Model the fold of this input.
Amino acid sequence: MNYADIKQYDVANGPGVRVSLFVSGCTHYCKNCFNKEAWDFNYGKPFTDETIDKIIEYCGASYVKGLTILGGEPMEPSNQKGILPLVKRFKETYPDKTLWVFSGYDFEKDINTRMRDEIPETAELLSYIDVIVDGKFIEELKTLNLRFKGSSNQRTIMVQESLQSDTIVLWDDVIHTEFKTNDMEEHVYEITID
Ligand code: SF4
Done:
């Protein structure tokens, strides 16, 4: 696997400050893709054990909330094989930090069915991922105020919760509920100290 870029401080691709890995290679060819140079699987640099060491080290900073893998297409079969050792080591080293993956594939139609059946790495990868943002970028559905998504067909899926409940649990819904709860608790707290 090759990779196009590593960002040590990324606040655009998931909550909080994150380390981001942009892998090379994508076969979706979305119209007006933001990262066309990464369609080529040979673009960028080879992803080595030293690259993994560097990412793990970056993720160790106390302010880093997690790791995000995007591209390119992390769920292309050859890239699944490439990212698995990183993902495994990340979760073993930082069990409390989150792993987000951006994929143009559909969670139900592709990732958790066809890929899980056909690609040896998919099931193990899914066991480590906290959130998958799924679906191709569709220019006609482009919406500017979506959090961490480019078009309205894309979904921010909480993977472990979705696998356990056998239904799609969306991060946006959970975060919205938690925000409301925290907001109410804060309000009660304010009333108490007054
Ligand atoms: S899935 Fe992402 S990287 Fe691939 S073509 Fe679409 S927008 Fe570009």
